[in-house]
């Protein structure tokens, strides 16, 4: 063996070792917040960073940190993975406890991924049920806590229209009869429609809302993969917002190309549908920005073929230039990998004036970025029904100084007294944010 | 003539372990090239998944094959004096390193898990295996490494 060929082999080994780690350093997230986020070049990893904050839980009276002028308290604790919240007209609060179905292993990679992602969730088993909290006097201490609806199939979205309460399980929308003041539903539900569920069910949370006139339901149906790696056939009827006719259960795609739309809600002044969307992974620490957007009827938002308008994703074949040509650029970037899962417009009157009329977004937090991003609740100011200005941190302090997490914020809601509620599915707490001294 | 050819040290009742194991990675890595090519043409994910599994199995078994081979190489000083032994050993080490990188490339999602880097690495590995395999055959069929020539009653 000559020394030159030995050197060549050593050099090759060193190249391999260098290429295996690294990737570009994450940039400052604020450059990707707003209507024109900075979009760096694509970087495809050999080893994508998998940095999930290990859950340590809240202890010793510790709470998240709120912006000046606000106060935060636990409304209730000891839940089993509270993921989303819904406030009934009488002020009762529904807490949806849920987790994802078991992830299948179709490739060697998924052995590793499933193991890493397990760390990002609390150890206990999710309830897969809905718990009702009643805080009639609004003091932040519920007088009543009951299991409202049990034995559900990975539920997430809830909406009440008249006396019909709809629950979006991961594979169906089910209707239950509800009368004001009910604390428990025992009647069997009636299925309105199936939703795309297993066997893969990669993005399983089905967000749900109703049109202002109550005739239609809107369900967010996330994609069945990061970027079609489970085959395009697995994406049938997915990465869409479904419009479901409440009378017949028939559905049509209201908007498509939305990788994982959550937090569906109508903006109260313009009555336009808005959503927060979890964008694709493994194109770098700062691609692709997750976003908040209004949803146009018939609109295509890019997934899987392109992102942020017409930026092509090299990982998708066959290409669809016809679809890319009409891909809509989202309204407002939230920065990359923050995982927005909750959205609520603030229509209350008790929080300080700067929080009126805009949107609170619950950012569950990143799991594949070397510097954590998200893990907070932000406020996006609105004017004239459009985002207007820089998002502000409202609730932070979910992450420890050494990169572990006390909890993770998910669903957000506004209660009858105008307080902001936050479901923390890793800390197993529902937090309540009020005006300081209020 | 009992031991005029180099001995195999890692063996089971006279049968060298290394040649029993190497068919697995060879078939897996050649198979990876085939399924990568089919994926590149069809963009049907089952072929890319097939490649990822073949790479994984090939790599796991090749580690044991490499250990057995290394034990043989160090077990009889005459082996290291054979030029084909060095080409075989170091070449396969390079192929192994490239296969590890290839597995990482194949852990990407969808098209770029194969095209172009995955496909190129799969091809490189097979080309290296042709050279190292040729030299491996030299070791056995020309230099008689691991032959069991002890006369039996």
State Rg of chain B.
18 Å
Distance between the termini of chain A: 80 Å
Number of strands of chain A: 30
CATH superfamily of chain A: TolB, C-terminal domain
* Major sheet summary line of chain A: 5 strands, antiparallel
Overall 3D form of chain A: globular
Biggest sheet character of chain B: 2 strands, antiparallel
- CATH fold-level topology of chain A: Neuraminidase
In spatial order, strands of the major sheet of chain B run 1-2
Residue-averaged pLDDT of chain A: 93
Could you estimate the helical fraction of the residues of chain A in percent? under 10%
How would you explain this protein's 3D organization?
The complex is a heterodimer of chains A (438) and B (153). Chain A is 8% helix and 33% strand. Chain A is mainly beta. Chain A has a five-stranded antiparallel sheet with strand order 1-21-18-17-16, with no helix packed on it. Chain A has a five-stranded antiparallel sheet with strand order 2-27-24-23-22, with no helix packed on it. Chain A has a four-stranded antiparallel sheet with strand order 3-30-29-28, with no helix packed on it. Chain A is globular and about 55 Å long. Chain B is elongated, with a radius of gyration of 18 Å. The mean pLDDT of chain B is 94. In chain B, a hairpin with a 2-residue loop joins strand 1 and strand 2. Chain B has six helices and two strands, in the order E-E-H-H-H-H-H-H. Chain B has 153 residues and is mostly helical. Chain B has one domain. Chain B has helices at 18-21, 23-42, 45-75, 77-80, 83-106, 117-142; strands spanning 11-12, 15-16. The longest helix of chain B is centred in the middle third of the chain and has 31 residues, at 45-75. The interface between A and B is medium-sized, with 30 and 28 residues.
């Amino acid at each position: 063996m000559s020394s030159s060929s030995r050197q060549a082999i050593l050099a090759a080994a060193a190249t391999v070792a260098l290429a295996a780690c690294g990737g570009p350093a994450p940039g400052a997230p604020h450059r990707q917040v707003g209507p024109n986020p900075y979009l760096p070049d694509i970087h495809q990893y050999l080893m994508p960073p998998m940095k999930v904050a290990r859950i340590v839980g809240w202890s010793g009276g510790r709470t998240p940190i709120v912006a000046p002028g606000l106060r935060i308290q636990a409304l209730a604790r000891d839940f089993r993975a509270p993921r989303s919240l819904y406030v009934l007209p009488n002020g009762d609060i529904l807490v949806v406890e849920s987790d994802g179905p078991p992830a299948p292993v179709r490739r060697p990679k998924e052995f590793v991924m499933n193991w890493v992602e397990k760390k990002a969730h609390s150890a206990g088993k999710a309830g897969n049920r809905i718990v009702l909290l009643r805080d009639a006097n609004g003091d932040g201490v519920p007088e009543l806590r009951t299991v409202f609806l049990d034995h559900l199939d990975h539920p997430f979205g809830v909406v009440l229209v008249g006396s019909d309460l709809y629950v979006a399980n991961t594979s169906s929308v089910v209707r239950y009869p509800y009368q004001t003041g009910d604390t428990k539903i025992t009647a069997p539900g009636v299925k309105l429609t199936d939703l795309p569920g297993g066997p893969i069910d990669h993005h399983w949370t089905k967000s749900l809302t109703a049109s202002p006139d109550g005739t239609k339901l809107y369900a967010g149906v996330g994609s069945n993969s990061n970027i079609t790696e489970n085959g395009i056939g697995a994406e049938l009827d997915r990465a869409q917002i479904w419009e479901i006719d409440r009378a017949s259960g028939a559905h049509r795609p209201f908007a498509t190309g939305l990788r994982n739309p959550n937090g569906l809600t109508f903006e109260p002044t313009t009555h336009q549908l808005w959503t927060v969307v979890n964008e694709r992974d493994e194109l770098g620490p700062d691609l692709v920005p997750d976003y908040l957007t209004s949803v146009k009827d018939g609109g295509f938002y890019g997934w899987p073929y392109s992102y942020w308008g017409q930026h092509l994703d090299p990982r998708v074949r066959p290409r669809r230039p016809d679809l890319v040509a009409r891909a809509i650029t989202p309204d407002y970037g939230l920065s990359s990998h923050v995982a927005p899962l909750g959205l609520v417009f603030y229509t209350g009157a008790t929080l300080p004036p700067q929080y009126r009329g805009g949107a609170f977004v619950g950012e569950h937090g990143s799991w594949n970025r070397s510097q954590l991003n998200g893990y907070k609740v932000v406020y996006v100011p609105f004017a004239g029904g459009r985002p207007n200005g820089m998002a502000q941190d409202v609730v932070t302090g979910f992450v420890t100084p050494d990169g572990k997490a006390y909890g993770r914020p998910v669903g957000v809601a506004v209660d009858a007294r105008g307080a902001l509620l936050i479901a923390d599915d890793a800390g197993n707490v529902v937090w309540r944010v009020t005006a300081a001294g209020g | 003539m009992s031991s005029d050819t180099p001995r195999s040290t890692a063996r089971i009742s006279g049968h060298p372990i290394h040649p029993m194991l190497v068919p697995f990675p060879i078939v897996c890595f050649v198979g990876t090239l085939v399924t990568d090519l089919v994926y590149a043409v069809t963009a049907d994910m089952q072929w890319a998944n097939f490649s990822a599994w073949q790479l994984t199995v090939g790599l796991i078994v090749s580690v044991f094959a490499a250990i057995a081979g290394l034990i043989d190489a160090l077990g009889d000083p005459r082996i290291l004096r054979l030029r084909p032994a060095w080409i075989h050993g170091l070449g396969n080490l390079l192929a192994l390193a490239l296969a590890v990188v290839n597995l990482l490339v194949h852990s990407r999602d969808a098209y770029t898990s194969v095209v172009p880097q995955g496909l190129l690495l799969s091809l490189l590995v097979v080309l290296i295996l042709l050279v190292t395999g040729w030299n491996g055959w030299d070791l056995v069929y020309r230099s008689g490494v691991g032959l069991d020539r002890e006369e039996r009653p």
